[in-house]
Amino acid sequence: MVNILMYTSNHCPYCSNAEQLLKNKGFAIDQKLYIDQDADLLSEMMEKTGKRTVPQIFIGSIYVGGFDDLRRMDLSGELETILKG
């Protein structure tokens, strides 16, 4: 099973959408890192991704990006391949 990590914040509709999309595929987010509760996590996320918006999603060692990227990968079929490892 592949590990899914998401940088998130409280009250983030795109984060909820990403989580629901993955849930509909039968996958759960293994680790949620709340950048609004820990400034060090925001710095870490920005260093890893170059972005300051959430969600920022990693599936295994693959950096997916945000919800729009996740959705685009889903529509293209690429997400299925990544989730199967």
From TrEMBL:
The keyword Electron transport applies. One of its GO terms (cellular component) is cytoplasm. InterPro entries: GLR_AS, Glutaredoxin, Glutaredoxin_subgr, GRX_bact, Thioredoxin-like_sf. Residues 4-61 form the Glutaredoxin domain. GO terms for biological process: cell redox homeostasis; cellular response to oxidative stress. Keywords: Cytoplasm, Disulfide bond, Electron transport, Redox-active center, Transport. PANTHER family: GLUTAREDOXIN 2, GLUTAREDOXIN-1-RELATED. This is Glutaredoxin.
